[in-house]
Amino acid sequence: MNILDKIIDYKRIQVAKIKAQTPVDVLEKATFFLRQPLSLRQFLTDPEKTGIIAEFKRRSPSKGVINDSADVFTVTSVYTAAGASCLSVLTDRQFFGGSNTDLMTARVNKIPILRKDFMIDEYQILEAKAIGADVILLIAACLTPAEVKKLAVFARSLGLEVLLEIHNEAELAHICEETELVGVNNRDLKTFTVDVERSIRLSQQIPAGKILIAESGISKVETILHLKNAGFSGFLIGESFMKEDDPGAAFEQFVKKLKLHSFTS
Questions:
Q1: DSSP category for residue 120
Q2: Which of 85, 100, 199, 216 is flagged as catalytic?
Q3: pLDDT tens digit string along 173-205?
Q4: Domains in the chain and their CATH numbers?
């Protein structure tokens, strides 16, 4: 059994327990449930913004502890002030050290927030809205095309946008009308090997009109410029900043370099 299979098996048990503890009507009464979600599509297509989806992640199955001392409020506030187009917040505790509280804490920022988790049930989408998320992640590797369609339709009915993550040609079949945002994960979730050029190759087969987002393995400004030329509007980056003692400062320096390269290119 690979790590993705282990995560999904655990997630099914966890979701069942949470459903029993917190009924849907409780989620629907949450303050954040009533807020109007922000549009990631709008933020990514704004030429004045960086296109970077800056991630807050404490650890991962492949890297172990990345940063267990960073403060989510401080880091995400700096990410926002320095020009992030979106925040990605891990809410899985078992494998990534995240929590729903992390996302709710980050909600003080006035930019879209992606709930980064392994979504397998409509209940998790209701939960995402209740904790202040604007976008949910659907991972093709752990869902069928029919499941993606069902969950995406449900998310859109709540006003949430959907980021569909694919990794190979077979997963192109998961793309549907409701998945306006399509991310290519350069990291294989089953082996954790990284190939940045994967985004370029797959982008040529993604239907026109989708907002393209490159995920994982991005640590250089030159890589973003290369991906922009290939039609990408979004760039999800987490580990590159989070592995530093001061993730916010690392992000600020990265954005300065990006703006300088964009101006001179």
A1: -
A2: 216
A3: 999 999 999 999 887 766 777 777 877 888 899
A4: 3-264 (3.20.20.70)
